[in-house]
Structure formats: C-alpha cells, structure tokens
Write a structure and sequence with these properties.
The complex is a heterotrimer of chains A (334), B (259) and C (249). Chain A has 334 residues and is of the alpha/beta class. Helices cover 43% and strands 15% of the residues of chain A. Chain B is of the alpha/beta class and 259 residues long. Chain B has two domains: 169 residues, Rossmann fold (3-Layer(aba) Sandwich); 65 residues, no CATH class. Chain B is 32% helix and 24% strand. In chain B, strand 1 and strand 2 form a beta hairpin. The two termini of chain B are 34 Å apart. Classes of the chains: A alpha/beta (334), B alpha/beta (259), C mainly alpha (249). At the A-C interface, helix 4 and helix 5 of A face helix 5 and helix 9 of C.
C-alpha cells in the first residue's frame, strides 16, 4: 500500500479505537444513568429492586439504573461524594454522618421496622427486653447498627449493657452460638437468623427495638447535590421502587421469581428464599400497619427520638435537626 | 623467666581426606626437638605442612600418627601452656584492645583485678600502653598483631607458636617487628616456634631453621644459625648468614622459593 | 541527634504536610474524604486531650510489646537452632517458610476464633508476624561469625557457653538488631490486623469505629497518625539499642 494510504487507514483505525473507548453513556436513548449502591451481596431482600428492574419500572421513569450489589464499607461517604447516586442506610449511620458534615439526606423508608433484632430460642423464656437482664447475649462487636439497637432496646427496659453479659463473636457466629445454647440471645437480622433457627425446627423469639423506641430502619439516601441535580430521576427511582414493593407485598412470588432471574444461584433453595422474603416483607411495614400501606413514609417523630438517643451515646458532635437528616418530598408522610 | 618449654614432636603424620580422591599427606613422619628457650623457625613452600604441624602442636589438630609433648606431657587439645598467634590478628572487633588481650584470662576465670594487673604488664611488653582503650579497627595492622601476640602471652605459656605472623606487613615494618619479637623473647625466655616463608626473617630470629619440603610434608634439613645474640639487622649482611641462607635455599624446592 | 539531622527531619515533614494540603486544595476533597492536615492535627490534639485516644493506644501498645517479646524470644531461640544445626534447619524451615507465606490477614480471623477476642489473639498474631524476620536475622548473624575467631576461641579453650556469650551473640548482634528493626514495625501491623479480626479496644478498632460508626474521618486520620508515630517511636527504640549494643566495630 502507498505510505500515504497506510497513514490514512492507521489514523482512521486510531479514531475508531478512541471513539469506541469513549467513556459513559449519555442521557439519551438509554435514559438518565443512576448508580445505586445496595450495600450488600445479592439477596432476596433486594427483591423489589430486581423486580422493578426486570419489569421495566425504572426504564418507564426514564432511568438507566446500575446496581452495586456488594458489601461496601464506604457506601455512605461515596453517596456523600456523589460517586454513587443512591444508597441504602439507616438512622444509626445517617445521624452521625450528617453530624460530621457528610451532605446526605434520607429520602424514603425501605424498612419501616428496624431490621436488626434480638432473637433466641423461645425455650429460654425471654419475651421482653426486661427479660434480658443478667442473660448472655452474643454480638459481632460493640459497633454498628446492631450495637446501637441493643443499647436502645436495653435502655427501653431501663437496662444498660453492664446489666447483661455480652459475648463477642467477631466472626459473626452468634447465630450458631444461640443454636448451641452458648448464649441465651443474640443480635441478628429479622430476615436471617430467626428464619434459619425456625427452619431447623426450633421456635424462636424476636425482640424488635421499635416496639419500645423508634429507630429509623434502612432507607434510600442521596447527596444534596444529587437531589438537586437529578431531582426528577431520584423521584422516579423512589416511585418505581415503592411500586415494586407494593406488588411484592400483594404477591410475594413475583419478587421471588424476579430475584431468581437476577441471581440464579439463589434458586437452589426456593423454600428458604421464600421464607427470607416473607420475613423481609414483614419488616417493610410499620408495626401494626396494613400490609402495603404507607410504604416509604418517613417517621419524623422516630427520627427525633433517635437523634436524642444517639446524642446520649455521644455520637452526634454537631447538633442536627430532623430537617438536616430527611427530605420527605418524594414520599407521603404519615 | 620460665624454666620449662621443651617441645618434642615425634613422627607426626597428618593426612587430610579429599572427596573422591586419595588422601593428601600434609605431614609425614615429622620429628623435631625444641629445647627450652630456643627459637626455631620453620620454613618451606606452600603445602609443605608447616602450618599443619603448628596446629598439631597447638592442640587444634590430632595427628593420625605420632605425638607432640611439652615437658613430657602430651598435647592432646588446646593447652594453656601453648600460646598461638595466627596469620591474621583475629581480634574481636567489638572489644577494645585491652579487652581483647585479656580475653584468655576472662575465659580462664581470672578476676577483674588480676586481669587488669596482667594487662598492664602485657601492654608494656608489646608497646601498646597508649592503645588499651582503642578498638582494633582504629589500629594499624602491625599494632593489631602486637595485640594478638600480647594475647597469646597472657597466660604465660611455655611455648609461643607463631604462624607467619608478619606476612601481612611491609618489609620494613616486618624487620622492626622481628627485632621487637627478639626483645620480647629476651624478656620472657619463652620457647618460640615461628613458621615463616622469609629466609631473612628465619635467619634473624632463629637458633635453628627447619627446612621443609612438600608432598608429602617432611623435614628436608635443619640448619643451625651460629650468629651470636643479641641479633641485629646488620647481621643480615654477614658471612655466616649468607652461608646459612645458601644452605637453606639448597634444601628448598628446585626453584629456591620459600613460598 | 545532630542539628542538621533535626533540621532535615523537620524539613521533610514540612514538605509532606505541604504536599498533603496541596492535594486537598487542588482535588477539592471534602472533610469526609480527605481532611486537610490542620483539621487532622486539631482532631489529633483533641482526641488525646479528651482521653479518647489514650486507652486505645495503651491497649495496642500492650499487644505490640507482648507480641514482640514472644515473637522475638522464639525467633532468637529458633534462629540460633537453625544456625547451629543443619538437621534442625532441614526439619523446621519448611514450616516456618510456609507460615510466613500465609498472609496474616487470612489467618487472623481463625486465630481470633481460637484465642478469643481478648489480648491473647492479638499477641499471637503479633508474635507470628515478628517471628520470621528475627529468626532469619538471628540465623544469618550466628552463621556470620568468623570461622577464624571461632578457632581462636577454641585455642583458648572457650566452653560452648563462653563461645555463645563472648563470640556468637556479639557477632550476630548487628544482624539480629537489623531484624528487630523490621520486626518491631511489623508488630504494629500485626496488632492492628489482630484488632480488625475482633477487639474491644485498640487503635485498629478505633480506626474502624471512626470510619464506619462515627463517620468522624478526621478522627480516623488522627488515629492513623497515632499508629504511625507509635511505629516510628518503636523503631527509634531499636535504633538506639543498636547504637548502644553494637557501637563502634
């Protein structure tokens, strides 16, 4: 080939390569891109997201959603920075984060009841928080939402952690410890350990902190900048997600199927996944509310009580008000 | 002055095992009688077994045949009656000169005050009184060897064995050290056996020069040095000496080299 | 330290702080991603003044001290054995090397399970991480003793014990202390990693607490600074020890 022609072909190839490697989608035919961090590995507890994605609810809102379905210890700062558009977090994280200047807002409640609970064998005779006095309680460690939940639960019965015997399981083996009788009770998640315990044939008791003290459960968060710059997209995401949640409450099988389509490995034990989903749906709604009603609503009184409680725990260096923490524009308040 | 120090080697033979090869006869039938207070030089080319004999006499090497006795008591291992000076000073670099010289006393369990007393005498003997606190690294090669000699004399041995002690020094310094060794010998009266590859050094120092040849190592001749004592450097130009040198040379390797 | 040494340390520190500040300014990082040096400094002073940092620092220091003592003690003894006996070396070194090759991060949760969430597991992890460099440096040091010096000592009828005390140990000290320099900084890593596998107190725990529960990123950085200072201080202790024990040679 003539040298000039080689040069022309080479530069054309180079241009194709460069254009082909060009970054990111633009909000055109594909819709507004949204990065959503779920903060945990793929699980049936995210059924509403899998359903909304599969059924095209996000697309219908003009959204192109990418999920980060992994454990992420830095999710809250990432949301605050805008590296991730939306994330999931609860009051025990949002309150200290906002107090430390991370610019996030809580937009919609996903878990109307705090999902971190205290459980154990029903045969232990424990029925209320007061019954925990003097008992052995297994926890993963003195940190995180479960630790705060435990303190709040004990406080509601006038107890402190010094009134019980705390046993630490850094490897998260407290569930096995309960099953073996090494401890009388343990912290865990409403849709995990108690489900496993009951399926093994043992009746379990579950203590919910919000029966005594309101603690806002995990919900959708976003940075103030994202809320401002992508307001319509955020609103659309919340709408689509709540729509899927309502459908799953009415017909759980829909959520189960969508999950298994998205994460085929979970299809190996449908029964277990169904049980977990049922327990999850249980904590979506507020205690005593009609299933499927008031999903996403933000409990301002609960947030206020939480701020008070966490201030007592010295976790709120700069005082915050509920308006600093939540933005109810995207849901209906009760 | 010591009244002992008669070293007698009888038919000493040493062979070294060599892998996949016949054993090397380092020393064959070596016999030597060193009188009290005598200075004997052993000279010979590399591989003639002179150093091997010294190590047997020092008790560091057991011969396959023969024996070495000191005042009728056999040498069966390292012996406090024998002082040994190696080719390199082999001083402990992390100790001062004084601590190096008193090392054998320390090992023998001497208490502090006795060690200090002896050290003062030894430093004076070798002319290192100014350097007691210095580290070996701060001394010249010659001074380090002086310290090694002082160390070898620490336990007042009857016999002092020296294995080419001055070979690392330049020729001029070497002559000076030879004279110093003679002075030291006059003061202590210790029997001296010195291995060397320098004919002038052997003649200057020794009453007799044992000439050895290699493969196998054996005594070729023993040449008496009839020069009067005290010896001096001028001696080296004399007729007695040149005759002795010629005789020594004649018994060495055909090349006439001593090393 | 000489005047010029102090000056050079001060200057390099100033440059470090300046570069840090520059990165924050140019990158426009918010406090909760990369706090600027003055904020970290303020939080550092406050954390010590409030008494927040002290118990955690003391706990970690305790873990390091005990872990180093155990690990170094074992390292010295085994290192000596490895140097003196070819049989010991052949039998023992495969296991030592295998243990060293397994990342501590992977072993830590297992050790926390076996030894519990208290001091013991951190000491074990620390000791494991410290053991290898000291065992190797001891072995190398003992082997490096000049054969000529050994023969000289033999010629003066030194006993095995005398050879060890007057010859082998002083000769091996530079190498051993070099290994200890490495060991002591690794001990800091070991204690922190041990705490991450489960702890009630400690600087490693405080880092996690600050980052994940309190969202107090300046405190997280201040704790990292404390950890770094701890490592530097311990390293300097070994350097001073080396100067005193090894001295001029």
């Amino acid at each position: 080939m003539h040298p000039r022609r080689i040069g022309l072909v080479a530069s054309l190839l180079a241009m194709v390569v460069v254009v082909g490697c060009a970054p990111g989608p633009s909000p055109s035919a594909a819709g507004t891109p949204l990065k959503v961090g779920l903060g945990y590995i793929p699980s049936v507890q995210f059924a509403q997201f899998y359903l909304a994605d599969e059924a095209g609810y996000y697309a219908a809102e003009g959204l192109d959603v990418t999920f980060q379905n992994e454990i992420d210890a830095n999710l809250v700062p990432k949301v605050g920075q805008g590296d991730v558009d939306l994330g999931m977090s609860d009051g025990t994280s949002v309150i200290p984060a906002v107090s430390q200047g991370i610019p996030i807002r809580y937009l919609a409640t996903i878990y109307g009841r705090f999902p971190s609970i205290v459980f154990g064998k029903a045969s232990s005779g424990i029925k209320t928080a007061a019954d925990l006095e003097g008992k052995k309680i297994g926890i993963p460690g003195r940190y995180g939402s479960s630790w705060i939940m435990l303190q709040a639960l004990l406080a509601s019965a006038g107890l402190t952690p010094d009134d019980v015997e705390i046993v630490e399981y850094p490897d998260f083996g407290q569930g096995a410890a309960v099953a073996q009788g090494a401890v009388d009770a343990a912290t865990g998640f409403a849709n995990n350990e108690p489900v496993v315990l009951e399926r093994s044939g043992t009746e379990a008791f579950v203590l919910h902190v919000d029966d005594a003290t309101a603690l806002p459960g995990p919900g959708l968060i976003a940075s103030t900048a994202t809320i401002e710059g992508k307001r319509d997209a955020v609103a659309g995401f919340v709408r689509a997600t709540l729509r899927a949640m309502k459908e799953i409450v009415a017909e759980p099988a829909k959520g189960l199927d969508a999950t298994i389509h998205a994460v085929p490995e979970l299809g190996q034990d449908r029964e277990l996944q169904a049980a977990i989903l049922a327990a999850t749906i249980d904590v979506w709604g507020r205690a005593g509310a009609t299933p499927g009603e008031g999903l996403g609503a933000i409990d301002r009184a609960g947030w206020e009580a939480s701020v008070e409680f966490m201030t007592k725990l010295n976790m709120v260096p700069k005082p915050v008000t509920v308006d600093d923490l939540v933005l109810g524009d995207f849901v209906t308040t009760p | 002055m010591t009244s002992a120090g008669r070293l007698i080697a009888t038919d000493v033979s040493v062979a070294f095992q060599v892998p996949r090869s016949a054993p090397v006869e380092a020393l064959e039938g070596f016999s030597l009688s060193v009188e009290r207070g005598e200075v004997v030089a052993i000279i010979g080319p590399n591989g003639c077994g002179k150093s091997t004999f010294l190590r047997v006499a020092a008790g560091l090497l057991a011969p396959q045949r023969g024996s070495v006795t000191l005042d009728d008591r056999p040498i069966v291992g390292p012996d406090p009656r024998v002082g040994l000076v190696f080719q390199e000073p082999r001083l402990l670099p992390w100790r001062s000169v004084g601590e190096n010289i008193t090392y054998p006393l320390e090992l023998a369990g001497w208490p502090h005050e006795r060690r200090d007393e002896r050290l003062a005498a030894l430093l004076d003997l070798v002319g290192l009184s100014e350097s007691a606190r210095a580290r070996p690294s701060q001394l010249s090669g010659g001074m380090r060897q002086r310290a090694a000699i002082a160390r070898a004399l620490a336990l007042e041995p009857e016999v002092l064995l020296l294995d080419e002690p001055f070979s690392a020094l330049d020729a001029l310094t070497r002559e000076r050290f030879n004279l110093e060794l003679l002075e030291l010998w006059e003061r202590t009266g210790t029997t001296i056996v010195i291995v060397t590859h320098s004919i002038p050094e052997a003649i200057l120092l020794a009453d007799r020069v044992v000439v050895m040849t290699p493969r196998p190592g054996r005594v070729a001749a023993i040449v008496p040095i009839l020069a009067p004592r005290p010896r001096s450097l001028e001696l080296l130009d004399g007729a007695i000496v040149s005759r002795a040198a010629a005789e020594i040379r004649a018994h060495l390797e055909p090349t006439g080299e001593a090393a | 330290m000489s005047r010029s040494a102090v000056a050079s340390v001060a200057i390099s520190f100033a440059v470090f702080v300046a570069v840090w500040k520059l990165i924050v300014l140019v990158g426009g990082y918010p406090l909760f991603i990369l706090p600027p040096p003055e904020v970290v400094a303020e939080r550092f002073v406050r954390a010590w003044a409030d008494g927040l940092m002290t118990p955690h620092a003391l706990t970690t220091l305790q873990e390091i001290a005990l872990g180093f003592a155990v690990g170094a003690g074992a390292g010295l003894v085994i290192g000596y054995g490895l140097a003196r006996s070819a049989l010991v070396e052949r039998l023992v070194s495969p296991y030592i090397v295998a243990a060293q090759a397994t990342p501590i991060l992977a072993l830590a949760p297992l050790l926390a399970l076996w030894f519990g969430p208290g001091l013991a597991s951190k000491v074990v992890i620390c000791a494991l991480i410290v053991f290898f460099p000291i065992a190797v440096s001891t072995m190398v040091g003992i082997r490096s003793v000049d054969a000529g010096l050994l023969e000289m000592a033999r010629s003066f009828r030194a006993t095995r014990r005398q050879v060890l005390l007057t010859l082998e140990i002083p000769a091996a000290l530079p190498s051993i202390l070099g290994g200890m320099r490495v060991g002591v900084t690794l001990a800091v890593v070991g204690a922190i990693v041990g705490e991450w596998a489960g702890a009630r107190e400690g600087l490693g725990l405080l880092v996690n607490l600050a980052r994940g529960s309190l969202f107090d990123i300046p405190l997280m950085f201040a704790t990292l600074v404390t950890i770094a200072l701890l490592g530097i201080a311990l390293y300097l202790v070994v350097v001073v020890l080396e100067r005193r024990l090894v001295g001029v040679r």
